Amino acid sequence: MFANLRRKYDFTDVLLWLIGGILLIFILYGSIVTLTSGKYTTAQWLNFIVFGLAQGGIYALIALGYTMVYGILGMINFAHGEFFMLGTFGAFFMAEALSATGLLESNWVISILLMLAAAMIVSATVAILAERIAYRPLRRAPRLVPLITAIGVSYFLQYTARGLFGSGVEAFPNVPALAGSIAVGPIKIQNTQVAVFIATAVLLLLLWLFVSKTKVGRAIRSVAEDKDAAALMGVDVDRTIAISFAVGGIMAGAAGVMYGLVFRQVAFYMGFVPGLKAFTAAVLGGIGNLAGAVLGGLILGVIESVGPSLFLEGIGIPAPHQLKDGIAFTVLVLILIFRPTGILGERLSKRA
Amino acid sequence: MRMRTLLLAVFVVAALALTACAPAAQPAAPAAQPTEAAAEATTETTTDAAAVPAGACDDPLGCIEIAAGDPIKIGYALVTAGPNASLGEDSARGIEIAVDDLGGAILGHPVEIVGEDSGCSPEGGQAAATKLASDTSLVGVIGTSCSSEARVGAPILSEVGLSMLSPSNTAPDLTDPEKHVDGYFRTAHNDLVQGAVAADFVFSDLGLTKAATVHDGSLYAVGLATAFADAFQKLGGEIVSQQAVNVGDTDMRPVLTTIAAAGPEFIYYPIFTAEAGFITSQSKEVPGLENVKLMAADGSFSQDFVNAAGDAAMGMYLSSPDFSAFGDAYQDFLKKHDEKYSEAPLSAFHAHAYDAMMIFAAKIQEVAKQDGDTLVIGRKALRDAIAGTTDFKGLTGNLTCSPTGDCADPKIAVYEVTDTEAWNPNVISPMKIYPK
Amino acid sequence: MQKAKPFRLMDAVRLGLFGGIAAVLIALVGMIEAFNKREVINGVISMSQVMLMAVAFVSAFFAAAQAHKSKPGQTIPAGLIAGAIVGVLVAILALAIVPLNMREVFVNATPRLAKILMPQGMEGIAGAAVLVVGAALVGLLAAVLTYLPGLLRRSILISLVAVVLLALLKDVLLPVIPEGLGDFLYASNGLTLVGAVTSFIVVALIAYFWMRVRPSTSKRIAAMPPAQRRTMSFVVTISFLIVLFLLPAVLGSYLSEVSDLVGFYIIMALGLNVVVGFAGLLDLGYVAFFAIGAYTMAVLTTPELPLVRGYIPQLSFWVALPISVGMALLAGIFLGVPVLKTRGDYLAIITLGFGEIIRLLVLSDALKPGLGGAQGVTGVARPVLGGIVSDTPQEFYYFILISILIAWFITSRLKKSRLGRAWMAVREDEDVAAAMSINLVGYKLLAFATGAALAGLSGAFFGSKLGSMVPASFNVLVSINVLAVLIVGGMGSLPGVVVGAIVLIGLPELLREFNEFRWWVYGIVLVVMMLYRPEGLWPDATRERELLDFEDEPNVDSEDPTGLAPSATIPS
Fold first, then answer.
1. Is A170 domain-assigned?
2. Prediction ipTM score
3. Whole-structure pTM value
4. Which residues of chain C does B126 touch, with a Cβ-Cβ cutoff of 8 Å?
5. How many helices (H) and strands (E) does chain B have?
6. What is the Cα–Cα distance from C242 to C247, expressed in whole angstroms?
7. Count of structural domains, chain B
């Protein structure tokens, strides 16, 4: 039946390239038509990109946690989006308290640092607890088992938040100092978006320093490379894994604060979609790779923002923004066809 | 050997299936099918009717009999889990407050609320409706939350003789004369009504002619956005852009940039709190939309929404039932809500749910007959009584039911947000501005 | 963990704290208040009281059982301490709610909750003291239980759980059971006292004798000559099938409805088992094929969608059914192509993306004329058999049952066939399989296509049964739930899939009235299941052996995405 497919590699490659080619032609055609129609001004295109980068920065921060855990355990931690959600709640309650005391207006730097602290503590604590209670006993189980556990943890955390904090949407208090925007060339960038860019860059730098320069970081890399060998070399594997969960949680907490500042809403279900997106971003960049997670997040954000208008409007698709996730996943498939292990495609152990 | 066993098993199974299926589907012998809830209801009540004095139950759909001290059971099928949970929970609270206001009892029988989560999906609606339908002691059902649930759930409830009153279904097809099922009513506004009022307001009152619409892929939003667009174009306006977002989206700036490129004077986005909040707050950050007028509908008519939208909501419009004539009753409701749940209502349909419960209570009192110690409520009689509702003073206006189940007061008002911290319709914010 | 260390009373304190935190969480999440209206035994004990007592009981039981193993003398104190600590934490919560006013953060921390937590009519320190003493007594009871012989203890525990379940499922059972029995068992709210005691005794007796008789019976069966054993298993199978076919008559419409839903998931899980269990390809977008099956059925048979009707005539259910399955199968092959190159988690994310793309496409305004968009499609055809339209849950039950049997037949035959062995070879090690001249492309595609076709079958019935569809029914949670059914049931095991679907789909469905809490409990159940029974509820014999081996295996880097190969450990 498959006799004619015997030369399988040729067949697969040809087929994949064919699919990739067709998709590329569609994308290019749509882009050219949109661009030549002149519907959008240059400033608007730049706006699309800035909006995408801001959203992408938040994806990137969440994706860092995904990638840390994946790099070290090879496990897709589906509950990571919920760590992010709980961190946002932590930041929210801190912000409420600050707003009540008036500190939010009078001293925004300390306020934001306190919010970051609250969010990071909550997210990291939940991450450590989840690791300790739900994941550690399954360290050596087949990989689907921790995957299902993670899904269970995700449901549990989501509905715990619903029960504790209610089912409504809560509004983040305004940080007056971050209102307004700065002008860069033809476009205006919101202060909150600037904050996201700075935070992402600083946190990535810190994380990179932590993983590559400190002793704990070296332990993390060695555990990612080979748990048994690391244990033989005197690395406390359990502790190291707990630390990387905590670090992932801290990043998720930071993402929560950024999310709160930019989008100003908190709800119990808000972790799921960004969690999926961050997972996608991590895979896009090369899962297990820290720089890849950030790159993947930013690219994903930009594609979601620019893609619908650029690729789809030209072909005459109505309401193109509805399909932005579809575009993001299609681009992901394309990238994986041409680069099967993601854009940067390396593991945590090889380089941070 | 194993092969043969399996084949044999399949054969036996197939034979059984055929024999088992045929009688099960025979409509001629419903009485022989004790498992069919509908049949059960009628057969049971006819035999029961013989036991009680003649005239106690002459209802073609049968009666519910409630012995002294037993509760009057009202079911609800609302979405109380998942991302739409606040919609259903809001309605459930409306029902609870109504029960409190009734003193927890109707005609001396305590009111028991049997709640089912319907998940805002057809399969959830089907399961919830089937479960409620199997409870023969139920008097009526309040629900569903989402129109997609009602499409599947209403026929199931209708078949067993139950009446249902939805606080938040707005899809036009549910009360379309061709598709309406008996016993289905709603206190929520048909999209066609609300969309037309919004279009009228924008075109005639604001004098704007270029509008854009955004929906979120929910039946409610698509229905309203379409109704608005149709009415607006009929009036002579132009719809310059029709966009959509997804539930769960957070960054609306790209879609708003696309809208800005089309140059509208007005954006209509009849979607729910979270996404509507994002659109409102982010619209001020998108060049070209600084002076565009914004309007959302009753799906966002809540404090959560203005809080989420922040200062950007200032001066925007919201359409909702006209509270102005019934200010006191609604104020009272808000006070009770705050006492009981210590927060503002979660969504916009609590008053509709309250009215639904109150209609049930009034109509049960109207049709219930006392038979010794037992309260007898005819199912058809209750249905007819609800259908005959005229000028029922509710929180959402004067309710009058149309033959196809639209009970909402057709008076829709447009409100302007004048304060983003406080929420008290027509007292602090939002203030009614149309019709004048 | 506890193997080496001897028991210390600190362990009891820790278990008590753990239980206490759980109890406080249960209260703050809102479960206590929500369940307070329901009673287990009418006028005697409410659901929320049972819940709090259960937490104290479980902590104390574990503490006592641990103590009993290494230091029998400390059994009673261990139980008392663990129980009392749970009581203390609950009492602290009850006392703290009003003065601290935590409602800004915890919406359920209302004065009402404080009142409910306290023993009836009591407040302040006195109430708290009664609470602690009560919890300690429950702990004592648990500790005493550990002294009972194993068989008796287990029957009592099973019976206690059964009574609570009986009370929980009142709404479901009452319409189904005979009226006399219903009146005997149930009061207007919860069980009657007599009914509760009787059912406790009856269940305990049955459980006791069943557990006593079972080992000897299974030994006797094992000792039978093969021919006789085969006849017996044949008889058991047939009687089981007969029961299955008679079931809807007993179940009533609601339980049939639940069975139908469970059935949809069983078919899907059987299909996913081929992809994940047999071939080892992790598919997180399985819902796509379900959606394709359902939408093909809908689009082909609805009288609406004028655009489509312009090209394709309106078909009947039976014509559309094979087309739906075929479309899903084609989609499986189509998705199979990019899958050929990717492995492991990349595969997972591509399939996940595919599932989302399908959902977005059916939702989109762009394809609205053809697929109905957000408004969905209504008027989907129902199966017509001999001129009679089937539209009740009971009638669908038969169609679904037959589909399950077909799916079961196909997958169990495939498993034992050459194809099945080839899949397993691919799963164990792709490179070796390729070297053994197994055609990777073909076999992977076949696995995907088989799985997809079964999901399409399930989807077609799903669409027809609903009669009206919106895209919201096809979100990623469906894929995740099917996977959970498969793993919790026991991967590769066909009965396991059925058990998994009943536990994960059927039970939450029956507890629909408990709304938001069912997903909370669902999450806990998933975690606890995976911690204590990672091999699943009804595991496949060979796979169980492999799983139990996993700890002895060397830590080798493996590309096997599902980790089901005997050598599979987590790669680093």
1. yes
2. 0.87
3. 0.86
4. 257, 465-466
5. 13, 18
6. 8
7. 2
